[in-house]
Design goal:
By secondary structure, the protein is of the alpha+beta class. The protein has 20 helices and 22 strands. Strands 2-1-4-5-6-7 form a 6-stranded antiparallel beta sheet. Strands 8-19-20-3-21-22 form a 6-stranded mixed beta sheet. The protein has a 5-stranded mixed beta sheet with strand order 10-12-13-14-15. The longest helix has 189 residues.
Length: 1146
């Protein structure tokens, strides 16, 4: 099959339809970064069934749909079509006969992808198989995406092995092996679970058997409880009936007592009411006397309060007069103090004004002195600055010369130190050889040998386990066959035994003591017939008594039946006259029978001497029973032989199972050892590689140190010359000393000028402060005098106010002292009225006490009568309630009996009598017995009444699970064999692919590098399925090393050789290279292009090369340019370079 055309619509940035013609030769795709070149490769992968959104550089598969641009809305679907030439008819069915194949994939938002081949909808799996049969596909090594070269370079050996697996078709085997391992683990898990469930079922079965016994006991106790409950219900009904009758009699007596006490209570109540009527006039007189007395007491209290208020007012006014006098005295003192303070302030103000007038004005003079001192200070500071600048310049030149000398000296010391250090390091590196490398190599070889031996041990243990597993399976099959055969025999024997069991008879029939040889049962039944039902016991009504008779002389061809029958002696005479003859001669031989003789055939035909004939078709129960007894005997014999055979088979199965478990443990132990040894191999290999890297670094370090020593020799000479030049410059220390002395003297003069200026400034400031303080003092004294003048005026006003208040207080005091004289007359008149009211109140109180005593006595009698009547009514109510409760209890007992026993109480009594159930003498004893039975039933705990049925169900399930376990064990053995076969096939394919790819890689490497050598090695494991792929290369002029130690360009070229080596092992119809030449220089790009042309000539593959390199572009047969006229939208432009050359040439 050949790819011809790729069409994109709405795929990523290709919003408009775009076509790429995939023609023979080299097709180049060029364009600036980000214009969508790699989308062409991704569309090819996508249409061939890629199902990873990450491989499409998206988060979801719908990201391949055009997402919109500034001038174009997003699309709802994307579609890619691939046209394939099927002229050679290599496509699988049903597309083999189609000359052209149109493979398309369409995705719509929210609806997923749809695959079609020639317009017919197919599965993704069908499309993947179509391309897989053509040695290509979405994950084909011939589709080299951008960055895959770098990934191959940086990949670990284990990851590189996938290249071999894809080329050798091992990936599918890995998938099948993984699925088989998953099924194996699932089967082993199911087997373990089945064993656990089997143990649980056995435990449950034993428990259910115990529960069945417990349920039987539970049912027995429950029956006893039901009988006792019925008896207890009847006893309770009888007790309730007796209690109801007694309560009704008591209630009638209580009604009589209530009537008597009610009449007596009514008479007592009438007498109490009459006494209460006589009490009313006495209480009214007492109320009037009480009101008069209370009024007199209130008037007396009011008079006392008025007298107390008058005395309090006098005391208050006296205190007020005293306070006013005190305030007048205090104000007089304050007025005197104010006068004295005003006199003092007047004196101080006069004195201060005289001082201010006498003080001279020194401000201008002090200001002039300050200006002169400041000018002298500035001149001294300027001189100091001039001398300091001169000294700094001289010192800077001196310091520069000293620093130059020190730097030269330090550089010389540093360079000499570095030189010596480099020499010491170079000497320390000698010798360059590392003896540990040989030791590490030997350790690696030893570890690899141990690992190989361990793996061989694993294979041997697995082979042994497989043999033992087969032996176990054979033993299980034999045991199962023996168990099945014995079970069938026992089942048939039990059935026959049940058929042969007869009803219990006083005299057993003779048939039970008779047996015939196999095949002669019908002959014996025909000869004896129903006579076999007769007994052998002489006491039976019909029995065999036995007789003596000589056997007749049988004609030629007849043999006696007794020779084939075992029977008691009582039947000997009858059997002596019975013979057996072949069926074809019986008619002829029957004519010569002696008297009393009978002739039979083994089929059951009967011919008697008297001419009676009975064919074998006539039913004979005795024949059937004899045949059944014979079969039962045979079965019993076979069972006796089958039981030892079953025990032997089960013993063999147990031994085989134990041997399998031992072999399984040996396999597990053997499998653990390669893991440890593999780690040792990896550790030894890492150690060897580490030593080799250290050796390489040591050699590189030695070379670097040699170059450093040579460089430092020249630097030492330069440093010595520079130090000599710096030491020859003369010193300027004397000039510096003189300038420093002048600067010190100038600084002293400047300091003195600064002190003089400070003193002048202090004098001027002090004079200004004194003047300000005097003016401030004058203002303060003036304000104080004004305040004291104001206070003196306020004090005189307050004195006048106090005099007016004193006069008012004295007038009020005189009036208050005259008020108490009128209170004495009012008190005398009030006391007379109070005495008269108290006498009237006493007389009324005595009359009320006498009337209340009479009323209380009548009331007491009425209450006693009412209490007696109430007590009688309460007793009647209690008896009535008790009677109602007894009636309700009787009805409840009857209803309980009807509900529980479904009969009336009288019927229940008769039933108890009929069933001879003892009636308990009292309910308490019956309840105690019932409680004991219920406790006994409760002690049984939860009882499973379906335990017997569940036990049968669990027994059936356990038998079925044993069958399932045998099937699982067989399936596990088959899966293990299948995994071993897959591993063996995978190793064969991987090794074959490795040999082909290694040969191709060596050839292509030499072609790309123009010489050198390279090879592929399987490392890290002796098992090809677990080993890693390491690339060893030796470009011309260099030594052999791993690819990680090569330069970037060499790594890229080596990886390209490996990819093309894989490609040659199984050429694909199309090969896409996405910027594979990016890390190569022009020379290597030319080699790369030559290799492309060679690949084109050696295979029918059509190449698509995505590139930025002009050299690669020039080697293409045709070019497609990808442009982006609008951001986010790609377009294709094609140019046929051969046709263009022809046009230019013409």
């Amino acid at each position: 099959m050949q790819f011809q055309r790729l069409r994109l619509v709405g795929f990523k940035s290709f919003v408009d339809p775009a076509e790429v013609q995939i023609e023979a030769g080299l097709t180049g795709i060029v364009g600036p970064n980000g214009c969508g070149k790699s989308n062409v490769l991704e569309s090819l992968r996508w249409v061939m069934g890629a199902n990873s959104a990450k491989a499409m550089r998206g988060q979801g598969m719908e990201d391949v749909i055009f997402a919109g641009a500034a001038g174009r809305p997003p699309r709802n679907h994307a579609e890619v079509q691939l046209t394939i030439d099927n002229a050679q008819k290599r496509a699988p069915q049903p597309f083999t006969d189609s000359p052209m194949l149109e493979v398309s994939r369409r995705i719509e938002r929210g609806r997923g992808s749809t695959y079609r081949i020639n317009g017919k909808e197919v599965r993704a799996r069908d499309v993947q198989l179509l391309f897989a049969d053509a040695s290509t596909g979405a994950n084909s090594p011939a589709l080299v995406r951008q960055g895959q070269i770098s990934e191959l370079i940086a990949a670990k050996p284990q990851n590189r092995r996938r290249i071999l697996e894809e080329a050798g078709g091992v990936a599918g085997l890995h998938t099948r092996r993984h699925e088989a391992e998953l099924r194996l683990r699932a089967a082993e898990t199911n087997l373990d679970r089945l064993d656990d469930i089997g143990k649980e079922l056995e435990s449950t079965l034993n428990r259910l058997k115990r529960e069945a016994r417990q349920a039987e006991k539970y049912k027995k106790i429950s029956a006893e409880i039901r009988a006792l409950q019925a008896a207890l219900l009847y006893v309770r009904w009888t007790d309730a009936k007796t209690a109801a009758e007694t309560a009704a009699a008591d209630l009638r007596e209580a009604d009589r007592l209530v009537a008597e006490t009610t009449t007596a209570a009514a008479a007592a109540q009438t007498a109490a009411l009459n006494a209460q009527e006589g009490l009313k006039p006495a209480r009214e007189e007492d109320a009037v006397a009480t009101a008069l007395l209370n009024r007199a007491i209130i008037e007396r209290d009011r008079l006392d309060m008025a007298e107390q208020a008058a005395r309090a007012e006098v005391d208050r006014l006296k205190a007020e007069v005293a306070r006013i006098e005190a305030d007048r005295a205090r104000e007089d003192g304050m007025a005197a103090d104010a006068g004295r303070e005003l006199e003092r302030l007047d004196r101080e103000l006069g004195k201060l004004k005289v001082e201010i007038a006498a003080a001279p004005e020194r401000g201008p003079e002090l200001e002039r002195a300050l200006l002169e001192a400041e000018d002298a200070r500035k001149a001294a500071d300027a001189e100091v600055e001039r001398l300091a600048g001169t000294l700094a310049a001289v010192e800077a030149r001196a310091n520069a010369e000293s620093a130059r000398k020190r730097d030269a000296e330090a550089r010389l010391a540093r360079v000499k130190g570095q030189h010596e250090q480099a020499k010491r390091e170079r000497e320390a590196l000698s010798p360059l050889e590392t003896p540990e490398i040989e030791t590490a190599k030997a350790a690696l070889e030893t570890a690899q040998a141990d690992l190989a031996a361990a793996r061989e041990a694993v294979e041997a243990a697995e082979a042994k386990r497989s043999d033992i597993a087969r032996a176990e399976q054979e033993a299980r099959t034999a045991a199962r066959a023996a168990e099945d055969r014995l079970g069938r025999l026992q089942t048939e024997a039990r059935g026959l035994a049940q058929l042969l069991v007869t009803g219990k008879r006083e005299h057993p029939p003779a048939l039970d003591r008779v047996s015939a040889a196999k095949g002669y049962e019908a002959a014996l039944a025909a000869a004896l017939g129903d006579d076999l039902d007769a007994a052998l016991d002489a006491r039976a009504p019909a029995h065999w008594a036995g007789a003596d008779s000589a056997p007749p002389d049988w004609p030629q061809g007849i043999e006696a039946l007794s020779a084939h029958v075992m029977a008691p002696e009582q039947l000997a005479a009858r059997l002596a006259f019975c013979g057996v003859a072949p069926r074809e001669r019986i008619v002829e031989l029957a004519r010569a029978l002696p008297r009393g003789a009978r002739l039979t055939t083994v089929e059951g035909d009967l011919y008697r001497w008297d001419g009676f004939v009975s064919r074998a078709e006539a039913p004979r129960p005795a024949a059937v029973r004899l045949a059944q007894r014979t079969r039962l005997s045979e079965l019993e014999a076979d069972i006796d032989l089958g039981k030892p055979a079953l025990e032997t088979a089960q013993g063999a199965l147990k031994a085989a199972g134990e041997a399998f478990r031992v072999a399984e443990e040996e396999v597990k132990a053997a499998r653990l050892r390669p893991f440890t040894l593999d780690k040792q191999v990896v550790s030894a290999r890492d150690r060897l590689e580490s030593l080799m890297r250290d050796q390489a670094r040591k050699e590189a370090r030695a070379q670097s140190l040699d170059e450093t020593v040579a460089r430092l020799d020249g630097e030492v000479q330069e440093a010595e010359a520079a130090f000599a030049e710096a030491s020859s410059v003369e010193s300027s220390s004397d000039v510096v000393v003189g300038l420093r002395q002048e600067l010190t003297e100038a600084r002293g003069g400047a300091e003195r000028a600064r002190l003089a200026a400070q003193a002048a400034r202090s004098t001027r400031d002090e004079e200004a402060r004194d003047r300000a303080m005097r003016e401030q003092r004058l203002g303060s004294l003036t304000r104080a005098r004004e305040g004291w003048v104001t206070r003196s005026g306020d004090s005189a006003a307050r004195l006048k106010t106090l005099e007016r208040d004193a006069e008012k207080a004295q007038t009020a005091l005189t009036k208050a002292e005259a008020a108490p004289a009128g209170f004495a007359e009012q008190r005398n008149a009030l006391m007379d009225s109070l005495t008269e009211a108290e006498k009237r109140k006493q007389a009324a109180t005595d009359a009320v006490a006498v009337a209340e005593a009479d009323a209380q006595e009548a009331d007491r009698a009425a209450r006693a009568s009412e209490t007696a009547a109430s007590q009688a009514r309460e007793n009647r109510a209690g008896l009535s309630a008790r009677a109602e409760a007894a009636a309700e209890k009787l009805a409840e007992s009857a209803a309980n009996i009807r509900e529980t026993a479904q009969m009336s109480p009288e019927e229940l009594g008769r039933k108890l009598t009929d069933d001879a159930i003892a009636r308990p003498p009292d309910a308490a004893g019956a309840e105690s017995l019932l409680y004991g039975l219920e406790r006994e039933r409760e002690a049984l705990g939860a009882v499973n009444l379906r335990a017997e049925e569940e036990a049968a169900e669990y027994g059936d399930r356990l038998s079925a699970m044993k069958t399932e376990r045998i099937d699982l064990t067989q399936a596990i053995a088959k899966l293990r064999d299948g995994i071993d076969e897959l591993n063996a096939e995978g190793r064969e394919r991987l090794i074959a692919a490795f040999d082909v790819i290694n040969t191709n890689f060596k050839t292509l490497f030499e072609a790309l590098f123009g010489g050198g050598q390279a090879e592929l090695k399987l490392v890290e494991s002796d098992d090809p399925l677990e080993a890693g792929l390491e690339i060893y290369a030796c470009p011309p002029g260099k030594r052999l090393s791993v690819m990680s130690l090569m330069s970037g360009g060499e790594q890229a070229l080596t990886a390209a050789a490996l990819i093309f080596g894989v490609f040659l092992a199984n050429p694909a119809p199309v090969c896409v290279l996405d910027e594979v030449d990016a890390p190569l220089d022009d020379a290597n790009v030319d080699r790369f292009c030559r290799m492309l042309h060679e690949m084109r000539s050696r295979t029918d593959t059509r190449f698509i090369v995505i590139t930025h390199n002009p050299v690669t572009m020039s080697r293409m047969d045709r070019l497609y340019g990808v442009t982006m006229p609008e951001r986010g939208m790609s377009q294709l432009v094609s140019v046929d370079l051969q046709q263009a050359e022809e046009i230019v040439t013409a």
